[in-house]
Specification:
Helix Hairpins, 9 helices, single chain, three-stranded mixed beta sheet, binds zinc ion
């Protein structure tokens, strides 16, 4: 069953990346993506495949990790006997509350050890970030270095224990599909980061950062709990729309320090980001 659960985890990530791609991509790689998803599905036994398909129809988040012995998707606590079964992966275990397939997280999974950002406001970007997570003037010239700078900021502020693990996980995600958009923004992220809400660190570069064939000037590194996987698509859409006007984007890119960057982002995301 262990291999089946591994295949489910892989499949879950791929279908969510396909959703991201459908939202912002031009569709040219959709066939390639569907073929990749079918190849992973082929690894599933007929029973497991049926369970996955049934759950996927209801919600694209069909599987969830355990976070402190709770289902990461719905938050319901999982009986200790089931937790042991999930860890041993001898049987397929579904959450008794939401029905999702449960899996155990690896030891090096990134987790949010700080919890929620202490919010100084409740609108726009303020729900997901703070001035201390702003990094204007990224030194990085390429995406790995840009992700490392922002992960370092998350580590410095106590959100994660290891920036290196965060970089490795975000780069693994980038290898499947680049998160750079045609709108001058890259959205690197790691899904399944439990322990807090959606949390983002934001960096800017006037010179630009090379990102898999594109150049971006704004980099938004996100830690995404499983429960907000669907909302994250809206978040990306709202940020993109907020920064679609050249003047707003330029104000963000031109910010000289964290305070200025934070204020520019608060202003520009207030109307769109809900
Ligand atoms: Zn659940």
């Amino acid at each position: 069953m262990k291999e089946q659960v591994e295949a489910i985890k892989e499949l879950q990530e791929l279908v969510l990346i396909r959703d991201e791609y459908c939202q912002r991509g031009n569709g040219s790689r959709l066939d390639e993506f569907n073929a990749r998803i079918d190849a992973v599905k082929a690894k599933l036994s007929p029973q497991v495949k049926t369970v996955f398909e049934r759950l996927y129809k209801r919600n694209h988040v069909a599987a969830a990790g355990l976070a402190n012995n709770c289902c990461a998707a719905c938050g319901m606590s999982v009986p200790i006997a089931s937790v042991q079964m999930v860890k041993k992966a001898q049987h397929l275990v579904c959450c008794a509350s939401c029905g999702r397939i449960l899996y155990a997280d690896d030891a090096d999974t990134v987790s949010n050890v700080k919890g929620r950002v202490d919010l100084d406001g409740k609108i726009g970007i303020e729900r997901f970030s703070g001035e201390k997570l702003m990094l204007p003037g990224l030194k990085a010239k390429d995406r790995a270095d840009a992700i490392a700078e922002l992960a370092g900021l998350l580590e410095k502020n106590g959100f994660i224990k290891s920036a290196d693990n965060m970089v490795a996980a975000a780069m693994e995600r980038e290898q499947i599909l680049s998160t750079a958009t045609d709108h001058d923004i890259a959205f690197p992220h790691v899904r399944g980061v439990e322990g807090g809400g959606l949390t983002v660190a934001i960096g800017t570069s006037r010179k630009g950062v090379k990102w898999d064939g594109l150049t971006v000037h704004i980099v938004i590194l996100a830690m995404i709990p499983v429960a907000v996987s669907s909302y994250y698509l809206k978040f990306m859409g709202s940020i993109t729309k907020s920064l679609s006007k050249a003047a707003a984007r330029q104000a963000v890119i031109a910010a000289a320090d964290a305070d200025e960057l934070w204020k520019a982002l608060q202003k520009t995301t207030r109307a769109e980001l809900k």
